[in-house]
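Changelog-adjacent note: as of this version, every example in the card shows the full chain rather than a window. The one below runs 1138 residues end to end.
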Amino acid sequence: MEGLEARQSQQGQQTSQSSGTPSTSTSRHRGRHSRGGRHSGSDGRHNSRGGRGGRGGRGQSQGQGQHGQRLADRNEAPPIDPATAVSLASPAAPSPDSRRRGGGRRRAPGAGSRRGGNENVQRSTLGGSRSFGGHLTNGSETDGSASPSLTHLSPNAPEFRPGQPVIGLSTSAVTPERARNHHSHQASKSTAHDLATRIHEDISNGQYECVICTNEVLRNSKVWSCSICWTVTHIACVKKWFSSRKRNSDEEQIDWRCPGCNSHLSDDPGTYHCWCGKEINPKSIPGLVAHSCGQTCSKPRATCPHPCPLECHAGPCPPCQLMGPSQSCFCGKHTSTKRCGETDYTRGWSCHEICGDLLPCGKHECQKECHSGLCGGCDIPTLSLCYCGQNSKEIPCDQRDDERESYNYGQVDLVGGILDDGELPRNWYWASFDCDNVCGRSFDCGKHHCRRSCHPQDEKEAHCPFSPDLITHCPCGKTPLIDIIDQPRESCEAPIPSCGKRCNKPFPCGHLCPDECHTGPCTPCTQIMEISCKCGRTMVKSICHQGRVELPECMRICRAQLNCGRHEHGERCCSGEKKALERAAVAKRKNRNAGLANNEIEAEHICTRVCGRSLKCGRHQCQQMCHKGPCPSCPEAIFEEISCNCGRTVLQPPQPCGTRPPECRFECTRPRACGHPQVSHNCHLDGETCPKCPFLVEKRCICGKKVLKNQPCWFEEPRCGLPCGLKLKCGTHLCRKSCHRPGECEDVGIAGSRCKQPCGKKRGCGHLDLEPCHAPYPCKEDSPCQAKTFITCDCQRRKQEVRCMVTKKNPSPQREALRCDVECLRLLRNARLAEALNIDPQSHIDNHVPYSDRTLKMYREDTQFAQTYEREYRVFAADPTQKTLRFKPMKNHQRVFLHLLAEDFGLDSESADPEPHRHVCLFKTPRFVSAPMKTIGQCLQTQTNTAVQQVHQPLVPTGKENAVQQPYNALLLTAPRFGLTIEDLNSQLEQEYATHPDVIFHTAFLPSDEVIIKGSSPWGTQDLESSLIALKPKISHKLIQSGCVRGVALCHVDDELKILRNEKDAQAGGEGWSSVIRRSSARPKLAATMASEESSSSTSLRSNFVVLKKEPKKKLEKLPVEDVEEDWEAAAEKLNEE
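Full-length structure tokens:
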């Protein structure tokens, strides 16, 4: 620290240079001048050439010497950068200039000034503000004192920028935020007036954002620009946008929308090129704008003949400033020459004078103001004559017909000078319309008149059409008149004779006239013809339509499917139905699943409706013609920000319509209606619900009887589970429905004053009436009572369930009596025998124990607990109405005793709920008969008495001492620990097994919950027995000491793991009936129950709720019936010999 202060003080002494305070430190500089600049004379100028700087790096940029001189002229110290000052104070912190220009070498204290360092740069120390003793002066300054505000280091000094005027130090402090962000300043968005300059500046400054990916568009990016809105995007982004465009399957046309302005575009994005399109993949050239080739733009303007003369640029070309060609007005009377940008090449210009062009009539001139386009028709009213000359009227000039010459034979009045036309001869005029009147001019005969409609007149009368020289045949034209009459016709008034033949003139419909040869027009055709309807399935008869046949429509509805596949035609009498059926049959025969093109479908069956289905966005409907398959994506775009619910995650526009709000990684901030704190979860959409409130509160049940505690806050309908108990409408019964809302009792919706419950009143027979409620009327008792009752035999042993069948009219129905069976006779015989032998059946007790050994063992361990629950079992067994019993939660070993006792009673038991609420449930099933006659205490007393009797009885030799005994081949582990597994045994006995490597041990559990460790050896049974005898003490000591088992004994088992010889039986001195019983398998359900109890105690349930259910009944396999040996001792000896 002291060395740093020494270096800083020496540095301050070296940098001080003023007229008032001369310093001798300059004499210690190398060559009197620093490597960073040269001293140019007494004026104090320092022309820095960017040499190596001081401790932080090289010196200041060029031009700092002049800047220092200008400051000296104003008697000011040169400003320094606060960051530079800090870097000078901290030796380990490099300055920004050092990072940009390279680091300098650090010199030892007292070694003179640092290379490239400016002599006038102020330094800051680690302590408080330090006074700067010297300041720059010029030749005219004589005062050696300086202002204190200028001789102290200031963090608010402006940054030195070469080539720019220096702003003096201000007394107003710069904000800390501005000082901190001084070096991290980033250029802002361009505010230029024209679009091209804004695009160039924003891309150069990294401020232009791609509207698709929202990343910056830089100078080295490959870009694409819209030709309508001039939006610039990445070429890769716009190609992805283009690839997801809407495709038209019928016409191979490109149709996509600009991501910036949403305008329709018909050209693909293509490849990356410069702004003017002359150069592909242009390189970034310093000095040129970004993505420019540097050539002349030369883009053609829409309404200008001059190409753009600017350098290749972005955005639209500016208006042309050259002089345009001369342009005439619309009427052509005047010309004008303007600048190209001011000339309207599209719409032209008007001189606002009268047009004066000749109108199409050729007689009148246009009276409109100078205008664009044609002048139009002449609407000047003109007095006109018809062709026949009988009528005249004023008609707009452009509405007259073709002018034709017509002769005035006296029918035209000479009014208004209409006939004064020098172009035509005398009495001739121009006719211009048809009056639709009959001409009426006389023929040359003077007797007949013209019957034609208005037509131009000739100077001479027309020849009479009835003149004899014109009429040479009969009216039908088949027979000459000379063949019909003897004398020829002499005048036009003479009648024309008829030939009497059929006329046969063709009608417009194609038929021939059926009338006799006649004069004048033929009568209309009245023939009957068959006409088919449009679909061709119905033929109708109709009078000839005179050539204008209009096909009728039948009432048949066309059921053909339209090309869209969604609608039926549904019109009557479709002309294309037949073709549609044929097409469908061919498609079905060829199994064509592909859709047909529109040109393969009848015109009548092309659907012209608008699709109208909602698009995936949910806002717009499909505007295409009705079509097959799914609708395309919505072509619209969203130009608004899409944010999540909390607003902290935002998608910037534009986005495709239907874009879902983004997934937000922040926590949801929605408040709960209940007022509890929100569970921590991510922000989500409004359609998704927040997690349920987990807090527990007190709530009143929906029936209002109880206030329930510890109810989840989200639970809206807590129920107490109690029956309702309200009186129903009948006034007799109570609602048995469990807790429910008010007004929802079980009789809701039942008309009248009845309910659905049984009547429940007592009948005359004493049973309850099971008929539906008929309140308030009394029971009729006209139907037989269906209640069940019992009938017994004479000895009262047998009983049978029958229906009561009592009615009001038949109070004692007749039924067949129940007879005694063989068992009744046997019991009667035994009773008589007991009476003869003076045996009391009530006091006689046998030695049968109906409980398992484990039940007796656990009873001895906790007698008080066992007696309490045995009493509850007997009460439950004696109650015929109670079907289930649920005990309170208890420990694992206590639940095991309840399961064992349930098995002995013939009840089904299950454990429910996880720890510490796990409890036992009992169920009465059909296999339950009754509770055992003896209690557990009585059975234990019976066993004790029997053992005492066996001890005092003399041993009776059985004669089997000489029987051959089989060698031991296994170890029997008795009373294994609850939850013991084979893996646990093998891991504990691994060392003992290793002492006999020739023996292979196999461990298995017996149905009696005992464990067998069977060994097998290739050296023989005697060696195996010796190995097992040697292993027994070690295994017995280790397992009994660890509490895994209670006893270990040698035994011999067969391949089915049946014990044929037991060491304990041999010590006890017999293999009587107990050994035979031991070979039988234990009850499997007890083992399964114990296993489930063990698993439930060691592992937790996946759910907090358990559904109680009964085990399905397993089908018992029929076992083969074995012959019962009468002499069990002989059978045991025979089994041992085998």
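Structural remarks: The longest strand covers residues 1047-1053.
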